[in-house]
Amino acid sequence: MDNNVMTPKQIVAELDRYIIGQHDAKVAVAIALRNRYRRSKLPEEMREEITPKNIIMKGPTGVGKTEIARRLAKVVKAPFVKVEATKFTEVGYVGRDVESIIRDLVEVSIRLVKDEKFKEVMPKATEIAENKLCEILLPIRKNAAGATEKSDAQLREELLQEIRAGHLDGITIEMEIRQQPKPIQLQPGNAPGNEIDLGSIFGGMMGKAPVKKRKLTVKQAMEFMVNQEAEKMVDQDAITQEALQRAEQDGVVFLDEIDKIATNDNGQKGHDVSREGVQRDILPIVEGSTVQTKYGAIRTDFILFIAAGAFHISRMEDLIPELQGRFPIRVELDNLTKDDFVRILTEPDNAVLKQYKELLGVDGVSLNFSDEAIDEIARVAFEENENSENLGARRLHAVLESLLKDVLYEADDNVTKEINIDKTYVEAHLSANLKERNLRRYII
After folding, report:
1. Which residues contact 324 (CB under 8 A, 6 or more apart)?
2. Fewer Cβ within 10 Å of end Cβ, the chain: N or C?
């Protein structure tokens, strides 16, 4: 299945593998992504007129807002950055400026495209690196006892087989490595992306980079040489051009905690002015503008923005009207129920219980949970959220850490054993802690 042409139903099905519930939010993002593919098939004149329908998600912490956006980017292999709106300050104040969001997105896109290009040339780069490594190792092998009886061709073939099998990984060799000059930052403390590479600018004038001898294991040398050969094979200018294009057309920016920069009528006028300033700085980026990066200019008109916040103090309507207008799709995520917790514990590909089973499996512990135990864990997590701060699915991690503390501590990789967790075990290990925490609420 080509990820770039997945239907909305296929995208939702993929998200269902990792995220329980929140169907409306999944549908909204799936449609937004499919519309990108539809737009790419239109004539250029029409394509320029169609911009993404940005999404704003409202819901308490831990219900899946961030996970939806994160998994979404993996599903479509799109450049993706997640940023907290609270990290930014109004222009003229100390702190990150909002344009750094787009610079970060371009950096992610560069890495994404570079990794793809590297994978394409990796077989050829590996072959060249293996042959070069053979040439380094050949004199060492020839000096070994009895090695002189064999021809160089035979020795090379032996070395190749041993390198591929990993038999020589631990051997230390000495290599000459050309050192690359480090980029110099224009303004110390500024955001990444404001560096210049004097070595590349004045390369001819400054001469070749100095060569330094380093001792490396065969494994380290192989990795270094493969990367070095792959760098020679890929076209850096083509990577930059494709990365800028992909960031412009396919980029996804997830603005978390956007409710924290919403203004409200609580009398904190000075603070509210600052918040409104950040909103007004974000506005041009979301509306569509051109941002300069060290790789070139990038338009933000077609980047998909997904904003999210709990909005338990402020409301969506507290955002400035212009910013609200740039997020036409509004989705409210549901609070998690006890049944949701049961499903989160068992169903997703990355289910919490599966994670603990795998972790303890390293130490030879076979961990099993009865259905009644899982139901009780879910009930405790749900009640904890109801009676104290609502942490959503993150509450399960706190509950399970408390439940399995003794098991995690006593596990020994020299002793293989099976541990069965039933309802009685859960009650014995969680009830006391739960009662103590609940009593604290009534202590003045």
Report:
1. 316, 317
2. C
Q: What is the pLDDT of residue 39?
A: 87
Count Cβ atoms below 10 Å from residue 411 Cβ, excluding itself.
19
- Tell me which residue of 143, 137, 142, 132 sits closest to 162, measured CA to CA: 137
pLDDT tens by residue, 230-270: 888 888 889 999 999 999 988 889 988 888 888 765 544 44
Can you give the pLDDT at residue 273? 54
Asked whether residue 444 carries a pLDDT value surpassing 50, the answer given is no
Please tell me the predicted confidence (pLDDT) of residue 443: 44
Question: In DSSP terms, which residues pair with 184 in a beta bridge?
Answer: 196
Q: How far apart are CA 77 and CA 88, in angstroms?
A: 27
Q: Which of 335, 328, 332, 377 is nearest to 356 (CA)?
A: 377
**Which tokens belong to 34?**
């499919």
Contact predicate 377/403, CB 8 Å? yes
Could you report the per-residue pLDDT of 329-371, keeping only the tens digit for each? 999 888 888 899 999 998 888 888 999 999 888 888 888 999 9
Q: Are 224 and 177 in contact (CB under 8 A)?
A: yes
Q: Which positions ≥6 away from 384 have C-beta within 8 Å?
A: 391, 395, 398, 399, 434, 437
Give CA–CA dist 316/68, Å, rounded.
20
Task: Measure the CA dihedral 206/207/209/213, to 10°.
Answer: -130
3-state helix, strand, coil in the chain (%, to 5): 55, 15, 30
**Tokens 């050949």 -> residue:** 138
Compute the average pLDDT of residues 42-47. Answer: 88
3-state secondary structure of 290: strand
**Which residues share a beta bridge with 255?**
83, 307
More confident residue, 113 or 200: 113
User: Are 324 and 334 spatial neighbours (Cβ–Cβ below 8 Å)?
Assistant: no
Mean predicted lDDT score pLDDT of the chain: 81
- Provide the 8-state DSSP code for 281: H
Please count the other Cβ atoms lying within 10 Å of the Cβ belonging to residue 207: 8
